[in-house]
Structures are given as structure tokens and as C-alpha cells.
Amino acid sequence: MAEEGPQQNDRLPADARLDRLEERLAEAQKKEALRTGKGPAPDANEQLGQKVLATLIGGLLGGTLIGWLLDQLLGTWPMLFITLMVLGTASGFWSIIKLSNAKSKRDR
After folding, report:
1. What is the SS3 assignment for 11?
2. C-alpha–C-alpha distance, residues 22 and 44, integer Å
């Protein structure tokens, strides 16, 4: 009794068996890349989206944190907190506008 490998069919021509083997190998490599975190590199649009999100959140949280700390030190509770939160958000949006304009100029 001849032993067959997994999912191997001897009745198929050699080319079909090799094609099937290559398909299974590619599928196994994709699964391994996902498992180890070595998947495909993110494209430029995904990177730009992540940069925009980080810029917006960083401006908002940075302004809020600095405003809160200054209010605690100076005893002017809501004034600097609100002012710097708004300024941080505005600076985040301003940075996003500059990013989008720079990308538009590069695309031309």
C-alpha cells in the first residue's frame, strides 16, 4: 500500500500537483506572516491616515494636559484648561491642513 502525502492525488498530472503545492505553500506563508506580525507593509494612504489621527489626538491631548497642569500650578482652574484645549485642537487641525496641502503638491 503506497502512502500518499496530505491532499495529494496521484491521478492528477504532475503540473497540477505542483500548482496545488504552490497554492498551499503561498497560503501557509500568508498565515505565518499574519501570525508573526510580518504582514504586508501598509500603503501610503494608510500611513497618511495614521499620521493625521496621531496629529489630531496629539494636539488635543497635549493642549489639554498642559492647560490642566498650568491651571493646577497657577490656580486658574478652567481658564487655561479650556483655552489650551481649544488651541491644541486648532493646532492639530492646522497641522492636518498642512499635511494635506503638502501631499497635494507632491501629487502634481
Report:
1. coil
2. 30
pLDDT per position as a tens digit, 38-86: 877 778 888 889 999 999 999 999 999 999 999 999 999 999 999 999 9
Residue type present at position 52 = V
Could you give the CA distance from residue 79 to residue 81 in angstroms, rounded to a whole number? 6
Predicted local confidence at residue 1, as pLDDT:
44
Q: CB-based burial of residue 85 (10 Å sphere; 0-12 exposed, 13-18 middle, 19+ buried)?
A: buried
- Number of Cα atoms under 13 Å in the Cβ half of residue 101: 6
User: How is 26-91 classified by DSSP, letter by letter?
Assistant: HHHHHHHHHHHT--PPP-HHHHHHHHHHHHHHHHHHHHHHHHHHHHHHHT-HHHHHHHHHHHHHHH
